[in-house]
Design brief:
single chain; about 300 residues; mainly alpha; two-stranded antiparallel ribbon
Amino acid sequence: MINITEIAYTGGCVLVSMALLLLGRWIYGVKAGFNADAQLTEADNPAVGVAVFGYLGGLIIVISSLLSTPSKGATPADLAWDLGEIALYGIIAALLLRFSGWFNDRVILYKFNNRKELIKDRNLGVGAMLFASYIASGLVLAGAFSGQIDPDFLPEGLTREKIIAHELLIGLLFYGLGQVALAIFGIIYRVIQPVDIHDAIERDYEKDGIKYGGNPAAGMAFGGNLVALGVLLWGGAHMDFIGWQENMTHFAVLVGLGFILLPIWRIFVDKIMLGKANLAKEIYHDRNTNAALLESASVIALALVLALTL
């Protein structure tokens, strides 16, 4: 039998999701510092396109997580509350993702001007890094905003508004911890590389008389590792909140494993999956995007296994 309430709720979810994507697109354009529409269409700038797609992709990840959260009731009033929560959390996520881009620009890619690299040099390496930072931050938000608080943890008699406020504060805390973890991992990744990763991503080169901006392979490899850590951060934050000790321990274990195992896993990619080739040479000297994608896929696969089984 057709349930009119469920159909209306589904239609509401579609409308809210579309509105959030449009809002996110507007927020990105306002805060970009350049004419994003012109770069995407008139200039046909692939670096900007990759960065914008990463931002929208991160927002889609958050929206998907919000939509998959179990409803707190089946009455029209309950479903209206659910739609309101999706809209509220989605708006906050769109703003926080843009903040994440600003934060990562200054903490992870702090040695050069990202706007110049995107607009003037059309640097796909920087575009890939920004894409990955948005996806990783989206995964953090998806984990932080999913799940529910154990009723035993909350005082009795709280209104739904106050429960939402508690959930939001806990989610924001895990989001902040996730951003710090991404920044620390960025330092670890830079330290273990045989080259200056910023210089490798930024340095222009010329091939067959054509000048290219930056090293896409270096940006893809670095970005793939950020996404892998983002998967682990999602795994650490997405469980229902049952207590500070339990949830923080789970989060810390997965973050610690990421700091240790993801750099070690590069050795597996280098020595086993690439055979006789040298991973660093392929990425930093030959600018081989295939090697970068292989590294990215391998570390993301490891992160997925850990996040889904621990």
